[in-house]
Amino acid sequence: MRWIFCVLILCTCIPNITFASDSQHYGFFSDINLGYEDNIWKINDDSENHVLEYKTEGLQAAKVRGSLGYGSKAFFDVSYETPIVRSEKQNEMLSTNTSESKLIAEKFLGVVRLDPLVDYLIPGDSLSGKVLQRLLSVRYKYTRELFFVDATALTSAVLIPKTAVLDYTNRTVSGSSPLLKGEKVTARTEFVDNEISIALWSFDMPIKMGQVVKLSPHEFRVGQYFSQWRRPSDTTLFTINNQPVVYDAEYKTNGILISIETMDPGSPGINADFSFRFGYDNHLNTAIDWGKVANKKVDTSSVMFNLALWYNFYFGATRDDGLYLTLGGNVSERTMNVDIVTETATSVDTTRIIHDTDTLYKLYATLGYRF
Asked: Most buried residue, 75, 186, 243, 262, by CB count within 10 Å?
């Protein structure tokens, strides 16, 4: 199914032509669809000094979903998901993976949508109406994705668990164990992301490709995020008995979120979302104190980005009736850096000692019928 991303790239090179209108559906509807998704995790693809070779496993699942609703909102929904290949790991990933995105009013007050009532009671072009609409756009989003990884040692190393105690003067470790070439370290890794954001304004996105091609209306959001994950990592900077070390790493980052997101995910043609996260409170928690390793001040930084592309094609006269197809892809990269900081009277120099990257890919396809 990795061919889906190739189709998406081709779609960005052609005009956004569809055979379905953008009409809004105001009556009852029913929808049934079949879907497939493939989750992929890549670790430290740009690293030059490999100590570990990573082999990861993500969820590959098929799903069937049926729903009944009114307007654009489903009030009854039933679905069934199953791994493509049944195994204990795949079943655990299926039961663990979670994605929730709700407006604050919907999540905590049990209210589906308040903005239509605000539009009715308060003119949308008034200051009070605009302020209320912004407040009602506050959204909480939570995702949890489980992966498994086997890390194979490419050379003999020293394995340092998080509970180990290090003597930096004598370069000794209490609680470590040898890791021979070819031996594996296995891990169960959960990527957990929490965010809360508010929409500041909405706008159209024209794209010029010989002619003006418009995507669906988008909104600009800002907010706060907190993310954490854990996996094996390695370094050749700190050695024990002239051997590199493999350690248990826990990553935590808290920072600012900026995103541009579509307001109509079902819009015919090409759709795109983009977000950028900059961490101001970052922690790489291990048994190793990097400041004591370098005997200098260290700075930990983190950035994350996410890009989603999907293409909706409606075979019927309108998007509310008939057969439809959705092809989608998502790439998310998170980076954690540790830099040694050298301060002089005239300058501040940094030397990067850790550059850990984790890239998550999601590819999916959905074929459905709406009537």
From this structure: 262
